[in-house]
Amino acid sequence: MSGVGNPVESARQMAEAAKQQPVTWKHRHLLTLEDLTADEIGLILDTAEAFSDVSKRSVKKVPALRGRVVANLFFEDSTRTRISFTLAAQRLSADVIDFTAKSSSVSKGETLRDTVRNIEAMGVDIIICRHAAAGATHLVAQNVSCSVVNAGDGRHEHPTQGLLDIYTMRQNKGRIDGLKVAVVGDINNSRVARSNLHGLLKLGAEVTFVGPTTLVSRGFEKLGARVVHDFDSVIGEFDVINMLRVQRERISSNVFPSLQEYSRLFGLTNERLNRAKNDVLVMHPGPINRGVEMSGEVADGQRSVILDQVTNGLAVRMAVMFLCKQAGEADS
Amino acid sequence: MTVILDEAGIAAALQDMADEIAAELPHGVPIGIIGIRQRGDVLAERLRKHLATKGHADIAFGTLDITLYRDDLAEIGPSAIVRTTEIPFDVEGRYLVLVDDVIYSGRSIRSALAAIIDLGRPKAIRLAVLVNRGGRELPIQPDYVGFDARQEARHIDVKLRERDGAEGVEVGA
User: Fold this and answer.
1) Which positions in chain A have a beta carbon within 8 angstroms of at least one beta carbon in chain B?
2) Which domain holds residue A266?
3) pLDDT for the residue numbered A102
4) d(Cα A261, Cα A256) in Å, to the nearest integer?
5) Active site positions of A, annotated
6) What is the CATH number of the domain that holds A78?
7) What is the ipTM of this complex?
């Protein structure tokens, strides 16, 4: 194996890398899955697989990001995503700082720009950013020279959620190519649905968006999704059913039917699940509204991989931070 | 390029190493052999087979990826590829033989030792390498050597059938 400054060894390793893993990760940021190639998504998933064993050891840490600082910059409330990123960063031995702000205080682009430049000036290497406005993380990335990872921007994308969903599907089904995946719920307002769509289509899956007409626009057909408004007519087709959370804050608005009506038509109950394939995977990005989009029995049932998703999220986020950091070092 | 070990030479070197390793294996202690990816694991598997034919059938086998423990991660950038580490046994209290293809600077071995120690506290770790090249930057030395190339200033290229489709050790230009 090589040491520093051994040109033949490094050349050999590079040739080997080119042969065995033709793709390398060149992006300092992860902002969307839409902009990635199938190979790049595959590289993240493979790297995540290598990281998954770190969480199973007695010392749940590797030194890959030792001496680096990861800043959680959440302009929108989140508990589990922030905790997942924090733990992932800590397992890479990075130091983590939390910055939380109400979106109201950073409502102008100029202010956001100043905020992130100030945070970067403290010597941060990776910013994990969540913001209520679509495209906000792009703006952040344009204004800093450190790495930026999108942890959800408005209704645009939530790439690490998409990746951990896809990772969990691959882990359980052994492939993505040819899988039939349903994403069910408030698609119009869902960044999870968009990241699932872009990632899954690139890897060869078929994606069907399911929900009431007011929550699933026909426009998604232009992006490559099939759009269906009658869940029961198609439920038998899918290998994976990814149920989105009903965003209760939207229920009073007139695009949303009553909870009972939604639950009756789109809620995943054992009765409805019995008409799905025997080996269908049931997924949910959390937090679950038990009894609304999914019954408790289904959430805790044999086909549910919801807690696997949470576990896999750590490995995926470790992989993303590691790859972006490595690419950033090549840039600078 | 000059061939310093051909296929038969590698086989003979491994056979000799296996003999030396076997002679020093402790009794009454669980034993494991760990190969550093991407060629040490191939050699470790061959050594394990030799040891099995010498009556040491119960040696646990693992492969180690050291990428996350390298001290030059900042320099190598995106060419750092993280592969899986598979050590399906407890290293605690175990006598371990660590295997790599070439020892040069010693930095890969340092990384490997750090990675193993994060998994537990082995009873002892011994180091077996197919080729011992000079140029150490750290005070780390192998216990078992297949071929001594400490006087060789040129670069050493190891090819193994399972990994490279060809077999042999060459010194480069």
Assistant:
1) 1-4, 6-10, 12-14, 16-17, 20-21, 24-26, 47, 49-51, 53, 57-59, 61-64, 92, 319, 322-323, 326-327, 329-330
2) 159-309
3) 61
4) 10
5) 80-81, 108, 130, 158
6) 3.40.50.1370
7) 0.84
